[in-house]
Each structure stands twice: as structure tokens, then as C-alpha cells.
């Protein structure tokens, strides 16, 4: 089993990175092969809505880092998406990544109308988490819901999302044994869910 983590924070060693590391450690302990991807380390253009992917079934507008990530998404059984809150939403890196998953959708004619995803019905599962400074998790705004709804639309079975509020300094989460353990357990649980649900 392969689980890939996609970290949407621009900070390579910040809170999202520490939480992602613990999640993947838990998944590894449960028997999965894991890979940790820092989205900002890939060049990912924002989708420009040319809609060519509807016909081409991949992005033929930009030949950028997404073309390294598309095969990984096809291959991975499970994915973990993590983003800090930037103004009540995900970071630009996470948003660009999610928007560029649009080529996986198949759209029937005439439009508007129903759509399907070529990543659906493959037993794939996903877990998303958000990190923010404010103590009240409501201050996370749409961070979790924007990842959760987009990945669910792609046909992934969704695990319970995780919120990590009250983390500001880049080492705040890594210094919290409790948070690291919560993440490790959730990563372990994600792999176990495959055996229970699939
Ligand atoms: C541009 C920007 C916008 C932010 N907006 C919010 C916000 O709306 N709510 C909040 O609680 N924290 C906000 N934060 C704080 C970050 O979410 C917080 O510091 C987080 O721990 C950063 O995670 P990282 O270390 O993985 O980068 C913002 C930070 C930046 C730089």
C-alpha cells in the first residue's frame, strides 16, 4: 500500500511539515510505503480554465511539476493533504494543486451536467488536515472544507479530517508530544481503514 502526503505550507520545516511527518510515520508503522511531498518544491502553475483537459485528459497547457505528480496520484492508494490556514482558506500552493487535479474529471455533454472522476471506484482513501494560529478552530474558516470537498468529489473515501489550531511558531506542533501522537495515531488509523472498508 502506498500513502502520499502533500504539504501545502511554504515552510519546509513548519507545523504542517511536522504533523505530516507524524501522520506518515503512523501510516508506515501500519505497513504502508510512504512518500512526503512539499508542494512548493514543485513548480505548479495556477489553472487558467482553458478547459483543454476535458478533451486531452491531462493538462496540455502547462508542462510543469504537476506532470510529476499525476502518476503518483494514480499510483497511490491513499493521500494526505495538509495546509496551514491563510486568511480562512488553504495556501496558494494547495489551491493550485487541487485546481490542477481537474484533468481527472470526465464531463459529459451537454454542459452543465453530471461529471465523473477517473480516480473514483478504485478504493482510494484520503485524509485532510488544517493548521492555524488561532485557538478557536472556527478561525480555520474553509481550510479543511475546501480540501475535503474537492478530494471527495474526485471519488476518494474520506477519513475524519483533523484540525490543529493554536500553532503559530514553526516549531510549535513538533514540540507538542500530544499533537505528534494524535497525528501518528491518525496515520496508523488511515491504513487500518483500508482493511475495514475495502
Ligand atoms: C498570510 C498568512 C495568513 C494567515 N491567516 C490565518 C488565519 O486566517 N487564521 C489563523 O488562525 N491563522 C492564520 N495564519 C497563521 C498560520 O496558519 C499558522 O502560523 C500556521 O501554524 C502556519 O503553518 P506552517 O508552520 O505549516 O506554515 C496565517 C499566516 C499567514 C502567513
What does it look like?
This protein is of the alpha/beta class and 198 residues long. The protein has one domain: Rossmann fold, CATH 3.40.50. Helices cover 35% and strands 19% of the residues. It has 6 helices and 8 strands; from the N terminus they run E-H-E-H-H-E-H-E-E-E-H-E-E-H. Strands 1, 2, 3, 6, 7 and 8 form a 6-stranded parallel β-sheet that branches. The model has no long low-confidence stretch (mean pLDDT 97).
**Number of E-type strands:** 8
CATH architecture: 3-Layer(aba) Sandwich
Beta fraction: 15-25%
State the CATH superfamily name. Flavodoxin domain
Task: Count structural domains.
Answer: 1
| Element-by-element helix/strand order | EHEHHEHEEEHEEH
The helix content, as a percent range, equals 25-40%
Q: Terminal Cα separation, in Å?
A: 13 Å
Give average pLDDT, whole number. 97
Number of helices: 6
CATH classification class: Alpha Beta
CATH topology: Rossmann fold
Please identify the structural class as seen in this structure.
Answer: alpha/beta
| Unique bound compounds | flavin mononucleotide
Coarse morphology: globular
Short description:
This protein has about 200 residues and is of the alpha/beta class. The chain is about 35% helix and about 20% strand.
